[in-house]
């Protein structure tokens, strides 16, 4: 994969280039750009498959850079310091990101995901969706979340998600249209992401949209009965949290 690196700090560019050369031999670094303007020139010159993009840069930041382009026929891995708002947006859009300082294992995993996307040539609209995410925050349009599976990236309304169920580092989403989507991310990421949208972590393996809770069953232990008839266990450690969320 041809890649360009965009960051206003030279030492960050050099460090990332060394890490890629050492641990990610499938990546060929074609250009280093110190600004959004240089990055745009590099995109037009090299037509990269992958872009490592810093968010916080002077004059124009990473999102300004993306807005300046007319196409997104490449994968993007964002590189950022701790910025909760930006990270929340990236999680909703299901794009990859790396926190500074860069962890080698996370770098390799992000590159491998980008490589698979590149091989499948499944150039999704995840970056476009990310840009739209910021617009949605100031509008009344209902929030959507990007759920990436092997076959597709589904943009689902939060209100369409009945529940999430964990299986090791995978999460299955159960939607109101009876579809199930298996996403290769752990449930704790979605717990943090969806807690502000009425979701309750009632068990280590279960995250529930409280809009679909019908009742609390107590006869054979503690379970939440959902409107579709599914019974979800409530762990002992989560009982008080669930009671508070349901105002019991």
UniProtKB/TrEMBL annotation:
Gene3D superfamilies registered for this protein in UniProt: 3.40.50.2300, LytTr DNA-binding domain
**Pfam families named among the record's database cross-references:** LytTR, Response_reg
Occurrences of domain HTH LytTR-type (ranges): 145-248
Q: Name one GO molecular function term.
A: DNA binding
Residue numbers carrying 4-aspartylphosphate:
54
Residues making up the signal peptide according to the UniProt record:
none
Q: Which residues form the Response regulatory domain?
A: 2-115
Alphabetical UniProt keywords: DNA-binding, Phosphoprotein
Q: What is this protein called?
A: LytTR family DNA-binding domain-containing protein
């Amino acid at each position: 994969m041809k890649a360009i690196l965009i960051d206003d700090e030279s030492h960050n560019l050099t460090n990332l280039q060394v890490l890629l050369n050492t641990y990610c031999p499938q990546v060929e670094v074609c250009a280093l750009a110190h600004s959004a303007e240089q990055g745009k020139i590099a995109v037009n010159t090299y037509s990269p498959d992958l872009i490592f993009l810093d968010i916080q840069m002077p004059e124009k930041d990473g999102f300004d850079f993306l807005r300046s382009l007319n196409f997104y026929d490449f994968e993007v891995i964002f590189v950022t310091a701790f910025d909760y708002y930006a990270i929340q947006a990236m999680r909703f859009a299901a794009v990859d990101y790396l926190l500074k300082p860069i962890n080698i294992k996370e770098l390799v995993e992000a590159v491998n995901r980008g490589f698979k996307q590149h091989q499948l040539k499944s150039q999704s609209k995840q970056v476009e969706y990310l840009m739209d995410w910021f617009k949605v925050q100031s509008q009344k349009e209902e929030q959507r979340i990007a759920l990436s599976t092997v076959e597709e990236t589904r943009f689902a309304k939060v209100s369409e998600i009945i529940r999430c169920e964990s299986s090791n580092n995978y999460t299955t989403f159960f939607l109101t249209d009876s579809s199930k989507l298996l996403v290769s991310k752990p449930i704790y990421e979605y717990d943090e992401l969806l807690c502000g949208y009425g979701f309750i972590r009632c068990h280590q393996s279960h995250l529930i949209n409280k809009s679909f809770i019908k009742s609390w069953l107590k006869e054979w232990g503690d379970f939440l009965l959902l409107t579709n008839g599914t019974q979800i266990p409530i762990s002992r450690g989560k009982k008080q949290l669930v009671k508070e969320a349901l105002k019991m």
